Amino acid sequence: MEFVTLSNGVKMPMEGFGVFQVPEAAVCEQVVSDALSVGYRLIDTAAAYFNEEAVGAAIKKSGIPRDELFLTTKLWIQDANYDGAKKAFQTSLDKLGLDYIDLYLIHQPMNDYYGAWRAMEELYEDEKIRAIGVCNFYPERLTDLCMNVKITPMVNQVELHPFFAQTGAIENMKSLNVQPEAWGPMAEGKHGIFTHPILTEIGKKYDKSAAQVALRWNTQRGVVIIPKSTHKERMEENFKIWDFTLSEEDMAAISALDLGHSEIIDHSVAETAKWLNGWKIHD
Which residues are CB-neighbours of 261 under 8 A, at least 6 positions away? Predict the structure, then answer.
């Protein structure tokens, strides 16, 4: 496993395990337990995933020392304001059964995220959070936030995979000293990524699968990844990407697959904002 050092000196694993769309408690607890047994130490959840309690239960049962784990959760739009963030953070902390969170992220650039950020800065200064960051902040939103807050985000988690490379966005993050992290590094299975001919052909050179090639491409760009799977054998496969290095030629061939836009979600349209704001996670 390789690590990145965030702007505040905190070390973060470059590969973790995501639990998006695994809301059923028993299933989530089992897959997190499996991931931990494979060797994953970064676990990524969110209040809006409805599985923080299951993640916490798996962590507790694992017996792994707390300081060896890196836990991420996220603040949902509904609670994105100063008071809401303080309350929502404590709720997540209680559900996870932890004393602190390693990384706390604003899930979407919506509602009063500046008020939420001030609350998160205070929680960070109180050592309740080791690092703070954002999700889905595209270059103009991220730059604006960085220029108008006391503590700049340490991480920005956005969609990053061979078909939506966001090279310019990554360059902007690095110029702001913000660590890029990929959600959906497998493009949520789109474009036949697991059998894609170019990825498969490159993989043959290294005795690796198309999926392993896609993941390694991101990490070689300096991107943290959080692939998800409910199958232990796939978790193991995804974890075995640290024993090979893609050539510059192969990196370029993969980058050439970029479509220049997302086919999963378009954050720039009103319909997305309406849909996300309408998603309530509590009364």
Answer: 164
What is the distance between the alpha carbons of residues 265 and 107, in angstroms, rounded to a whole number? 14
Segment among 21-25, 59-63, 182-186, 253-257 with least mean pLDDT: 21-25
Give 23-57 pLDDT, tens digit per residue.
899 999 999 999 999 999 999 999 999 999 999 99
- The continuous run of DSSP H or E covering 38 comes out as helix 25-38
Asked if residues 34 and 60 have their Cβ atoms less than 8 Å apart, the reply is no
Query: Which of the residues are catalytic?
Result: 49
| Distance between CA atoms of residues 209 and 238, nearest Å | 9
What pLDDT is attached to residue 43?
Answer: 98
Query: In the structure encoding, which two tokens stand for residue 126, read together?
Result: 């109180």
Q: What's the pTM?
A: 0.97
Residue 106 has pLDDT above 90, yes or no: yes
DSSP string, 102-113: EEEEE-SS-SSH
User: Topology of domain 3-277, per CATH?
Assistant: TIM Barrel (3.20.20)
Whole-angstrom Cα distance, residue 91 to residue 169? 32
CA distance 71 to 250: 33
Residue type, 212: Q
Both tokens assigned to 26: 């028993």
Q: Where are the domains of the chain?
A: 3-277
Which residue has 């008071």 as its token pair?
83
pLDDT (0 to 100) of residue 126: 98
Helices (H) then strands (E): counts for the chain: 11, 10
